[in-house]
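Subject: sequence -> structure tokens, single chain

Hey, anyone have a minute? Need the predicted structure for the following. Not urgent.
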Amino acid sequence: MTEAAQLRAAALLRRAFVVVLVWAAFATGFLGAERTFRAGTPVSLAAGAAVAAAFLALVLGGGDRLAAVVSILAERAERVPAGRWLAGCVAAAAGVRLAWGALLTPRQVSDMELYYAFARSLAERGVFEHGGDRVFGPPGVSLLLAPLVKLFGAGTYLPLAVNVALAAGTVLVTGALALQVADGRTMRVTTLLVALWPNAVLLSGLVSKELLVLFLLPLGALLYLRATEEAGADRRGLLLGAGLALGAATLAQPNTLVFLPAFAALEVLRAVPFRVAVLRLGLLGAGTALAVSPWTVRNALLFGRFIPVSVNFGHAMLVGNYDGADGGFRPVRTPYLGMSEIEYDRLALRKALDWIRENPGRFLALVPRKQMIFLGDDGDGAYHALKWAYGIGDARYAFAKAVSNGGWVGVLALAAVALSARRGREVDRDPRLVLGILFFFCLLALLSVTESGSRHHLALSPFLALLAGLLARPTAGAAPHGGRERATEG
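Reply:
Had a minute. Here:
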């Protein structure tokens, strides 16, 4: 790919992503009215349009002023040495999560309760099983917790302690990634956003697999970029390490595999020679397979079938594609509880595909709804920690949702300004900055077909925070690959 073609492709992706950000702002207003006020479609459409209009006014009319404010704040933050800044963000991340745990005793619900039960089963009996299920759910977060449950017991606050450690790791990894692709100012904004991300804070007492993926996905991206850029690095080892991180994330959330094509697209944008790209991607895939393979072998021994991680893709397809589907979760498995997990998942996939073939118009009509559910709410933590766990649906819940979704729209706006006009053209020159955008498009495409859910975008929040943090960069005279030199700052 020529440099001109690369710039055109990067610009196309960037502009398309800005459209997605506006769509996300609309979806946040629409779903907020629908879910909070039980508004009908006309009112919800008006609310979505109002939020999108305010969003566009801020981005187009106030973008320069917003960028100036962020730049001034980042310049002041830059006076703090990088190491001390990162330590402060780690402390802030731990502090707000521990304070939340002290304020509201964590209570596991829904899938979180199930994953903790799997961890207890592993610790106490050495068997991954609960309620007759042995392969329906992904094992990743339960495998992480099982040895800790064995040592300390399945206490109320064990998930909180683990998630505090994961949050610290996520801050450090995201900081290193920001330094790799940008500079110290970007790193400071990015790590502060990640440390205080409201939805992640509210989920911190729960056994949320998304919080594990939140750490592992940027780790995989960081290792991959270092392997493909830094001179003298153990490139093969780093590529395998990147694959191991993605494989571990796949064990926690199997749809992580949908991100692998993003790395191939990155190599195309970087105009890497074909043989080099194949070697890099091959090592990445090998590392991913290596991480997943012990569980695949376990499944083969137990069930006599090739099951890489779990059998719930058919279930996700059926939830998203049947007569009663609305894009989000529905308990479609209940009539089939007497059926084995494997047979149910196969039946579910057949029924979903049959429904799509018979109802192509209704399937396509669900796509925008699924996208809105994915993009238009960042209140998963408020919902599970407050409303589901304790039945709290009063002003406290409304406040938690407002903080979560207000922060979500705020970061969307920062990212949109950073990707617009002159600043956006600077992003086009560095394909590495497009990797997070590619991740979004990969997951958006998948969730436009299967069951959708806002929880899935949490793992992408470090990349969104990084794009928002680009507002802090000087807009002129910045070296396109200055991250390598600045990585040793402080």
